[in-house]
């Protein structure tokens, strides 16, 4: 368990290195030791497995990982809400007499609150789970109880965006400041509310304040992952993120920057870091420029000088 700050902790655990004979007991003790918010118990007599990362901050508990041959049990009298996402695989969810089968990408919102709940898997599943206070979601979801134990289909636009957003939050750097944590928590509340269904003013509020921000964060992460592609363009980025090119440009404009300005700024930042890295002191500046996605060396040199008031060679020579 590691503390990123006073109000956020990250816990990682895996049974991979444990002897087969002791895995079941070790897994069942995770709840008692406070490492998990809910219980996992062995089922079907098979060798159980679990590997997870848990990120806990004020008002939000995020669990991601995989497990197999386990029963995931929500604690009765726990009034918090749990959004359980079956990223890959199949699980059966049950609460009272209600039972659902969740397959690749599906999700369900549930709560203990007097009755408890279970998720059972006969095979390996990749999962993501969110624990949220009821008070955070209730104002955005009229008739919240009606949203419980309803399958949220994998192709739901809000759920797809939430899954992508959780991938970005998986970078612990995204949780490095209180401001970022508060912003991320608010965005997740709104995306959960949109995914499980609401209408009227609450939907408008959630859409306006968080969906655009979450989409832009996911788009930026996509751009950074493809920054070295000299053919990177707004059309391909928009297609990968299931938005129109016009909407993509509007998202950037709301931040006072264009798509092209963002891409160039990030490429220049990469190009600035590489020459000053002692491991890359001997690499040609032209090679670096092409590796960060510039196709024109002259343009790269002009843009670099405008940004840093120096050439890449000037920057490197300051360190020698």
Structural class: alpha+beta
Helix-strand sequence: EEHEEEEEEEEEEHHEHHHHHHHHH
Question: What percent of the residues sit in helical stretches (DSSP H or I)?
Answer: 40-55%
Strand content: 15-25%
Under the CATH scheme, which class? Answer: Mainly Beta
Number of helices: 12
- Rounded mean pLDDT score: 84
CATH topology (fold) name: Jelly Rolls
* Sequence of strands across the biggest β-sheet: 1-2-4-5-12-7-10-13
Say which CATH homologous superfamily is assigned: Jelly Rolls
For the biggest sheet, the summary is: 8 strands, antiparallel
What does this protein structure show overall?
There is one protein chain. The protein has 320 residues and is of the alpha+beta class. The longest helix is centred in the middle third of the chain and has 25 residues. The protein is elongated. The two termini are 41 Å apart.
Describe this structure in a few short sentences.
The protein is 41% helix and 24% strand. It has 320 residues and is of the alpha+beta class.
